[in-house]
# Entry
Amino acid sequence: MRTISFIIFYSIVLAIYFFVNYYIFTRGWQALPAGSKGRSIYLFLFLFLSLSYVAGRILERFWLGPPVNFLVWTGSFWLGAMLYFTLILVIIDLVRITNLALPVIPSTWFNNIEHTKLVLFGTITSAVFVIIVGAHINTWFPKINKVDISLNGEKSEMSSVRAVLVSDIHLGSLTPKNRISRMVSRINSLEPDIILLAGDILDEDVGPVIHRDLGSAIKNLSAPLGVYGVTGNHEYIGGVHKAADYLTTHGIHLIRDSVIKINNSFYLAGREDLNIDRFSGRTRKSVEELLKDTSGVLPVILLDHQPFSLEKAAAAGADLQLSGHTHHGQLWPFNFITRAVYQISRGFGEVDGMKVYVSNGIGTWGPPLRLGNRPEIVLLNISFDLN
# Structure
């Protein structure tokens, strides 16, 4: 049954991918003069760009090397370009339709229509190129967001804890090792007591991570109380057992539907990802079952990759939930969708008395681009109210 679901899902995805590329290609083709050399060059470049991601992802299952990596990088940039080409072209087509009933386009534009088409072709291509370059540069510079949180910790032995939260690193083919090393250095420089990784540490297949030895950088994360993480949907997509083994051997303590008491000061609970049933046929514990043995005296910090059903976590006794997953849309205008889907799409909030922080994430999925939000490392200064 799951095999049939996968076939249907990927068939729909490929159909949409084909349709969008066909739409972009057709509009560009119409802008170039018939029989020109420009059309031949355009056809070659378009086929290469539109097929590179699919080809790269298929080939990397059998061979990992620079040519395959080049295809994956090229195709990933094209995924972002597809979005903005489509948005701009749809707006232009809507203006053209409007112009049929209500003239809004200057009549002089039609005096030399071939020239106008070429100008639009060049302008749109240049605009998308600038957007893609800017959105990629944005991924290089994560910001440090500092948040002060107070929890009821009457019986806590510690008065506070300095925690660093990072989500959605997405280690994989599109993750430069030097960038991960810089991320680790920045996290360690914050001198955290504990480091918390809110899922999607890996980007699906662990093969490229092993091949490029990205774990050696992650292994340098250091905090006196330890480095803890939970599974995300991408750990399950790529095979959770291999992912968990790799992360564990590189210094990350995965909390999988379990609770740990930290320094007699707070409970740290970690949930399996919501997609566990979809990829493994198993079900995760309910949040009520997970937290049933917490004393109610010490504060409970819950790591759950996807920020769904926050009110259930609050009712079960969690004092603070930390999540990721949303990327806050990653690329504008998808942030409007994540705002509609999630009660909290990013940042700090409160649900039924439970504090919540949803991280934008520090990495990217699909296109190595961010537009409309910055990647982040979150420094949580958590104080325990001892009164």
